[in-house]
Amino acid sequence: MKQLITTDLGGHPIKYKDFEFLQEQIRELVNATFGQLDWTKVTVLRGCTITVSSDGYTITVTDGFAFYNGFYYHVPAHSITGTTPQVAKWIVAYSYDSRGLKTFKDTSQKNVYKIDELKLAFVNSADTGVAIADTIMSTKKTDWVTVTNLPTGWNVHEPIMYRLNSNGDLQIKGKCYMDDSTESVGFVLPVGFRPQKNTIIPVAKWGPAPTDVWYVTINANGEFLWDIATMGFILNHTIILD
């Protein structure tokens, strides 16, 4: 452990190398704690639940923290909206704390309090940013989330809810009846709650005869599909996401 000794009598001037020494200690602590993680991907440490609107235009992320490329970042709550469904990526965005405006010896003024944060952005360059698909959710068990804003024609009899259990598996439950709506995509699961490939789940089908076993599909992009009009389904399933 590195320490800057400041208790000796008489004191000493603080210089640039002293701050470098302290930053080295912080970097070593971060690497010792998170160094075993994949540096090329964004690993969520807390929060950062990502949701995508049904039309794919708006992506929202909640407040949290994440590790990327050897650094520990704050992720502020924010949303981005495009004109068409686009691929969003994580980027490092920086700003300055106004308290850091300093006057230098040559009388110029510069802000020296830089703040780096991870944010989502629509990025066209293949060489810039980390795709949402390369987000690793390190946390496991979550609270139940209730699905809202289902398309017209999706009639809820028992709320559709999902969560991750203590093993990091997706649990999903609910009861829903679909009338003559042609919209088969009911909702989109956020990143971290999606299977790695399209997954078919057998469910109990109910409604006009015949009533038997059918299936719903959860795609790797999070889409939850049910495409049989005038029929409903009953969910109470656990899905391994690995």
Mind explaining what this structure looks like?
Helix content is 8%, strand content 45%. With 242 residues, it is mostly beta strands. It folds into 3 domains: 1-36; 38-137, no CATH class; 145-239, Phage tail base-plate Siphoviridae RBP, head domain (Immunoglobulin-like, Sandwich). The chain is elongated. The mean pLDDT is 82.
Walk across the major sheet and give the strand order.
Answer: 13-14-15-20-17-18-19-16
Question: What is the typical, i.e. mean, pLDDT?
Answer: 82
What is the helical fraction, as a range of percent? under 10%
Q: What sequence of helices (H) and strands (E) makes up the elements?
A: HEEEEEEEEEEEEEEEEEEEE
The portion of residues forming beta strands comes to 35-45%
Shape: elongated
Looking at this protein, list some descriptive labels:
Immunoglobulin-like; mainly beta; 3 domains; eight-stranded antiparallel sheet; 20 strands; 242 residues; four-stranded mixed sheet
Topology, pairings included?
Blueprint: H1 16-34, E1 42-47, E2 50-52, E3 58-61, E4 64-68, E5 71-75, E6 78-81, E7 88-96, E8 101-103, E9 109-111, E10 114-122, E11 130-131, E12 135-137, E13 145-146, E14 154-164, E15 170-178, E16 185-188, E17 199-206, E18 213-218, E19 223-225, E20 231-239
